[in-house]
Amino acid sequence: MSLDVKNTIESGKTVLGIELGSTRIKAVLIGEDHTTIASGSHDWENSYVNNIWTYSIEEVWQGLQNSYRNMANDVKQQYGVTLTKIGAIGFSAMMHGYMAFDKDEQLLVPFRTWRNNITDQASKELTELFNYQIPQRWSIAHLYQAILNQEEHTSDIHFQTTLAGYVHWKLTGKKVLGVGEASGMFPIDLETKRFNKTMINQFDELVAPNDFQWKLEDILPEVVVAGEQAGVLTEEGAKLLDPSGELEAGIPLCPPEGDAGTGMVATNSIAKRTGNVSAGTSAFAMVVLEKDLSKVHPEIDLVTTPNGDLVAMAHSNNCSSDLNAWVGLFEEFSQVMGVAVDTNKLYETLFKQALQGDPDGGGLLSYGYLSGEHMTHFEEGRPLFVRSSGSNFNLANFMRTHLFTAFGAMKIGMDILINEEKVQLDEVLGHGGLFKTEGVGQSILAAAFNVPVSVMETAGEGGAWGIALLGSYMINKKDGETLETYLNDNVFANQSVKTVSPDPKDVEGFEQFMTRYKNGLAIERAAVEHHQ
Prior knowledge:
The structure is a single chain. The protein is an alpha/beta fold. Among the domains are: about 265-315 and about 415-500, ATPase, nucleotide binding domain (Nucleotidyltransferase, domain 5); about 320-405 and about 505-530, no CATH class. The chain has 19 helices and 22 strands. Helix 15 (about 440-450) crosses helix 18. Keywords: Kinase, Transferase. Pfam families: FGGY_C (PF02782), FGGY_N (PF00370). One of its GO terms (molecular function) is kinase activity. It comes from Aquibacillus koreensis.
């Protein structure tokens, strides 16, 4: 054990990042060199209640406390130190969604997550009104849809925020959001790095006939950018996060961010012409733009980096869930056969098999649509595997097809950026569970985007590490030092990176698969309509 690390912990020079992802809440404690010194996590799953994908407030706090306690126990076991002081804390969570509170700070309706495709009318009307793409999962779309549905709670709204904003508010008393996360609530004015005033006025006029007691600006959080302090941990907040009472109050918090922003930071892809792909339960590609897009594209969302630069986002609701279910089936088969298989080994073996398949996946087709998929206009999904009598049906092609389709919907959005908008991309950084098996997810993504794909040794660290880096930037930056410079000089200077360049045969094979994917959407539509 390093005495340096022990001293760092005892003197409170650490930074804690906690991210509430779709399936896991992860807490990461980093030292002065930005490497992880302790971590803890808590697994959770969304519930489908009354046609809404949600997590209960009780689950949020139970999961946060659990992941914090597991991290603090890790500190105790490794270094023999009780964690009481931390230099800074940051919270991040899955973006978007809808959390509305009344004047007594009570949640008015269950949390509606990004996964709900229930705001189609609102999304279309607001996109037209603002001439700016408003995706279904954005908070403003949820709010307006609730108004269109004449939901009673809308007249009682006192404050509206996202999951990251909610946690931050309860721990600091501050109703704020980092600009990257805020850009998934409502459009941002790139000059002021605040919510777009003109569009706020347009919205207020639109809903004026309802005679609400509130104006939009009054119920939205304040927007702050990376590097600004966004409050301190209150006494109540400290007890809420750490019921043992060991954690001291007064710790500064950085602006709460969304998982898209922390993914950009964790992969050092916040500079223009860089992009990153996060591939887990959902998949999204983020590309930092050099200029505005020429027009509104329903498949492309515009958000910002945590320091307020414009980012095009091609987001698909589904990525690895169906793939994981198939791997689970193989695991079950091996158990029935009396063969004990390590899950990681199983993933690695099956993923590597995919590289042995035909370039196009042998004529097989699948859709991992566990839920709806806005990119291809499905309100609900049916996971589906299809083959023709002439397909080359073997394990390698089966796995390859499931990896292909994990990126299929996202690829449709990326094609618009690259082919129609002529966006220049030098490289893409991959992170998330799909890239854990070395070289496989990378090769498939390089074929899909026809661009080099890099994975860093820290790729598995993910968003919790990303928000910890934002906390570190807030307390350690020099005067005038930008986030980009801070990351380049202090965090990623000696990072080892593995890059895979696209193989022309694989690129051609992926294009053949995509033709099949687009043509086969009629089969998915029939499955949704006829299979209950």
